[in-house]
Amino acid sequence: MSAVQHNHEEDHGHHHKETFMTKYIFSQDHKMISKQYLITGLFMGIIGIAMSLMFRLQLAWPEKSFGIFEVLLGKWAPDGVMDPNVYLALVTIHGTIMVFFVLTAGLSGTFSNLLIPLQIGARDMASGLLNMISFWLFALSSVIMIISLFVEAGPAAAGWTIYPPLSALAQAQPGSGMGMTLWLVSMAIFVASSLLGSLNYIVTVINLRTKGMSMSRLPLTIWAFFITAIIGVVSFPVLLSAALLLIMDRSFGTSFFLSDIFIQGEVLHYQGGSPVLYEHLFWFLGHPEVYIVLLPALGITSEIIATNSRKPIFGYRAMVASIIAIAFLSTIVWGHHMFISGMNPFLGSVFTFTTLLIAIPSAVKAFNYITTLWKGNLQLNPAMLFSIGLVSTFISGGLTGIILGDSTLDINVHDTYFVVAHFHLVMGISALYGLFAGVYHWFPKMFGKMMNKNLGYVHFWVTAVCAYGVFFPMHFIGMAGLPRRYYTNTAFPYFDDIANINVVITIFALIAGLAQLVFLYNFLHSIFYGKKTEMNPWKSNTMEWTAPVEHMHGNWPGAIPEVHRWAYDYSKPGQEEDWVSQIVPLKDGEEELQH
Amino acid sequence: MTAILTLTVLVLIAISLWQVAKIFEMSQTTKDNSQVANDHDNDIQGKLMFAFLAFLYILTLYSFWEWGDVLLPKAASEHGSDYDSLMWISFSLIFFVQTITQALLHYFSFKYRGEPGKKALFYADNNRLEAIWTIIPVITLAGLILFGLYTWTNIMTVEENDEALVIELYAQQFNWKARYSGEDGVLGDANVRFLQDFEGKNLVGIDATDPNGLDDVIVQELHLPVGREIIFKMRSQDVLHSAYMPHFRAQMNCVPGMITEFAFTPITTTEDMRRDPEVIAKVKKINKIRVENSKELIANGEEALEPYVFDYILLCNKICGASHYNMQMKIIVETPEEYQQWMNEQETFAQVIQ
What we know:
The structure holds two protein chains of two kinds. In chain A, strands 1-2 form a two-stranded antiparallel ribbon. Chain A is mainly α. Chain A has one domain: Cytochrome C Oxidase, Chain A (Up-down Bundle). In chain A, 63% of the residues lie in helices and 1% in strands. Chain A has helices at residues 2-13, 20-25, 30-60, 67-73, 84-120, 128-147, 178-207, 220-252, 275-309, 316-330, 345-357, 359-373, 382-404, 407-413, 417-447, 453-479, 499-529, and strands at residues 262-263, 266-267. Chain B is α+β, with helices and mostly antiparallel strands. Chain B has a domain at 165-273 and 306-353: Cupredoxins -  blue copper proteins (Immunoglobulin-like). Chain B has helices at 2-29, 39-67, 80-111, 127-156, 211-214, 270-274, 277-299, 336-344, 349-353, and strands spanning 165-172, 175-180, 217-219, 222-225, 230-236, 241-245, 250-254, 260-264, 312-316, 328-334. In chain B, the strands form two sheets. Chain B has a five-stranded mixed beta sheet, with no helix packed on it. Chain B has a five-stranded mixed beta sheet with strand order 4-10-9-6-7, covered by helices on one side. In chain B, strand 6 and strand 7 form a beta hairpin. Chain B is elongated, with a radius of gyration of 29 Å. Chains A and B meet through helix 4, helix 5, strand 1, helix 9 and helix 10 of A and helix 1, helix 2, helix 3, helix 4 and strand 7 of B.
């Protein structure tokens, strides 16, 4: 490997001229690509969150007229009253954007790109070109997804899972025409982007670690990104195949997912396909996707909690083992989304078994986080607050998984608001907290400036209270039997007594939405006017903080530092400071922890 | 006009937020501007963490106090009590774990908040602890899995038998139909190809050449005799739907191109359920809300809402298009005699297509 390293140094030894285009637009530098991912992700996040606020307004005050709808939805909200098709479109695109564009690309794309080379001591990603192509495919898919919002009949509206036949037949709903075509094209490109990114991450972690950076000395962030990339490579192609088969059914008359259909007074020619097949293909990605979203957030949290507790992460080996266990299990539990899909009930019992097993590595992780805090010297920076918040929502949301993962109990709460509450807490909010924690923590690394901590505190507390305010009550309306994706609940007088809960939820959601503006202000303002950072503001052990604040090609001037210890020597007895960077050699007689 | 007004309000809110943010920032430059948490921050944020724990508990207690009555409506099917006990066991367990872990997490965040001169404990590993919190979940989950699988198998094993009543639930955008098998107890063959036969009178596409189908009865309202096992065969003619009957702890997707099934035995008639104190309280509460809502409607010159009477409902619970939210059917559970009487009044398929 040393020869490879040597070549790298030579490559970066002489400065080649950079134009605006190569530096900011078609950059192959992982740090710039990371920023591009983050900013695109945040932009998509604004759209996704704004959509959720709109349908929350409709849910709290059904069929009321809102001026804002008239402005933003135009002809789809005549007199300011939202159309049911548009409601479904908003729900669909909100889900798609948040899951894929914000929490997959925005989270994993940003921090894998930023941290993998910097924390393992590499000059850049294994292939800068692939990395650049990966980002631009993501950008392209984002643009197509946004264009789909403006087509004549409206964007895709079959739910983010786009189950056929609803998504396959233009007759079934307006959104299944051009809007769905664009959705599928956008997602196909997204998958390509994700695969290029993941391959690059895997190759980089395996091949480009600096001297001394053994796998057992990797920070947990890198372990999380590495395993996430592997799950991505294993499962995303299956989504691509599902999308391609659906495109064939839609446009070329095949019958992979369709059979015996009569719609709009017409018998269609499809014979022999099955929507259940689509569900299998979709969830074979769809479930691992949950962990593709969550694991990077957990990795980020591990790093931030250890640093800010000034303590080693508790149970490093157990943390790595549980990431691997979760990743493995995540590929054999997809059927728990399909207990009542009509598949053989025996399969249901198999998937119940594998699903509930996931609780074990998850519990290990939660307890290890809590033990890391124990007897620490907690530096409660905004990043730390979001990390603790993540552990809290991960527990609250994860626990209800024990109910949903049990095929029996799923019968009555499947597709109700109970599910909405569960997955928003355990993956939505948790991953979002991971994203925020990461931004607050590595902002100095990305932009050379500090974010304002007090605004960070305001942002955290308002968000934390509102997140529970929104999703905790949803468990109740779900247990009451209220299905998700209902435009209004007024068609059932039976649900009249929970209408007020919907109002409470919406009010919390609106406040939470406003709180994100504080973050946005802080983010944008700090890029330009933030206080200049020191080299290692959080006194962290990992390698990225040994690189100069000013970004440079190749990350380190001169040789890449050698690594001599693991990343978690915080408050180690016998050291003067409460941290020891990974690049500091062991003292005479100092033992490296056998982890 | 309203549009401009809303936009203005939004812009004003944005500006005021910007200003609040600015003030925050200015108030801070006077002191220390390192942007790294100092002892003062650690103290305040640690205490807020503790306060947040209180918030979580209060939110939980308030929610149960205020909305506890909407949780899981009273079960009206035979397997309902098994379902409910499994639910409450799981629920109590997660409630217990939630209470303890949130307490530890937030209390530690408060207790060990950074203080001047404090040094953290270098504590990297403990295999015994790891073993404890691996093994305890393993044992607990093993119990839950076994109980769950036992119940699941009981609920999902559908055996054809002479006693059971076979009913087809037929889904289409956006309504439900039910087909009873008639005198012979056998549902006639059916396929969407036959839907256009008999000028659209063949509502669920029965094959008229199959003699079993001629005595089938198609209705828009589901009547079930109490105490008899009902085997539902689900079909859909267009997109996925899901037949969700929350009171019976029953749900199954309706999939075009295949027949899915679910069986349960209703144990409480609609009449009896209406006399249940829990249901009476709920109906009263709903009607109070409806009277309130009606006042507004009447003020706008619209008609008042009809008073609510309890009925079992069948809902569509799989996104199926614009009117998904209103795809419902009334379920009436009645005595076998009442059921028989109602059935005798219905027209058979043979009579309909004549």
